[in-house]
Amino acid sequence: MDTFKLSRRGLLAASAAVGASLAMPAIGARAQTVFKFKMSTDDAPGHHRHAVVTKWLEMLKKESNGELDIELFHSAQLFNDVNVPRALRQGAIDMAMPGNWVLGGIDPNNDIFLLPMFFGVPQPAMHPVSDGAVGQAINKQLEDKLKVKVIGKWLDHGYSDTHATRMIGSSLDLKGLRVRSFGGAGTEARIRYFGGDPVLVPWAEVPMALSQGNFVAMYSNSAGVASSKLWDSGIKCTVVERQFFHQYIPVIAQGSYDKLPKPLQDLLIGSWADHITEFRAMTTAAQQKAFDTLAANGVTVVRPEQSLLDDIRKGLMSTQDELVPKLKINPELVKMALSALKQNT
């Protein structure tokens, strides 16, 4: 058990013992008030984010003695992730965990992870970027623009890899092929760099479009490809290239956060900090399991050598200087990210 948990639980016990003599009574030392919050996600119960969020909310309810009662509305019962920023601003929900890839419209700096410098970079080298000064700057912008509080470090979703209806060895084999884009100038620029023809297809339309041959390759998270059983729609090959690294940003509306007594605020922030390593391990395991599922269903999983990925990234970097102003990304953040990568790769 870590020091933070011990000190927090010790505080609760001490507060209960001395009662009103404390200037700020802790959880359980004051008359019980239940704070009922709503949290929105747009993934289904089988998804790895859902598993993490469900576990965390159960922990919060238990550790707060029922004072934090956060109801999770999954599967876009309330909102798609792309709509949660407005919902948070308007007070329609209290909490959310949107992917950073849907937040470029709020702050273009969220699109920094679409830049070529991150292609093929191993996961451990990504965390110093999002956990460090770059992530903190992005958090500050989101907090100011959305009137939210970022709860803590971002949860890993995983990489978008390359999937195709034919055998390919890497993205270098995409020349002349129609490639599904999930949107954004950075994604389309990458497809064009490899000689592919980008076509924007919403995720809900992917299975039908694949079956009809509207495109032959796509960038997508492998866990999503596996859970959607896209081998039934024609996917025959997955290339583990680590095209783009995606993470979820846990947030609570500032107004909702301000309603909480200080001990509950500390519990909310502290619980996430205590368990983020465990939660990231859960989503990483789900990603690895997805590769096994794909292989078990006849999809060939190709793992290029790191040296090949490094060579591809060096070539892609020729497009980065042009992309930065096009994506409206702060050049200083780019310098900071490059420095973090050099120190950790």
Description:
It is a single chain. The chain is α/β, with parallel strands linked by helices and 345 residues long. The chain has two domains: 34-157 and 247-288, 3-Layer(aba) Sandwich (D-Maltodextrin-Binding Protein, domain 2), CATH 3.40.190; 159-245 and 290-344, 3-Layer(aba) Sandwich (D-Maltodextrin-Binding Protein, domain 2). The protein has 13 helices and eleven strands. It has helices at residues 3-18, 48-63, 84-90, 123-130, 133-146, 185-193, 206-211, 222-227, 254-259, 262-296, 306-316, 320-326, 331-344, and strands at residues 35-40, 68-73, 95-96, 148-150, 155-164, 178-181, 197-200, 217-221, 237-248, 251-253, 300-302. The strands form two sheets. The protein has a six-stranded mixed sheet, with helices on both faces. Strand 6, helix 6 and strand 7 form a beta-alpha-beta unit. Helix 2 (48-63) runs antiparallel to helix 10 and helix 4 crosses helix 13 (331-344). The longest helix has 35 residues, at 262-296.
Q: Any idea of the CATH class of the largest domain?
A: Alpha Beta
- Identify the CATH architecture of the largest domain: 3-Layer(aba) Sandwich
The main β sheet shows up as: 6 strands, mixed
How is the CATH topology of the largest domain named?
Answer: D-Maltodextrin-Binding Protein, domain 2
Oligomer: single chain
The first-to-last residue Cα distance is 31 Å
Overall tally of structural domains? 2
Q: Supply the number of helical segments.
A: 13
Brief account:
The chain is α/β, with parallel strands linked by helices and 345 residues long.
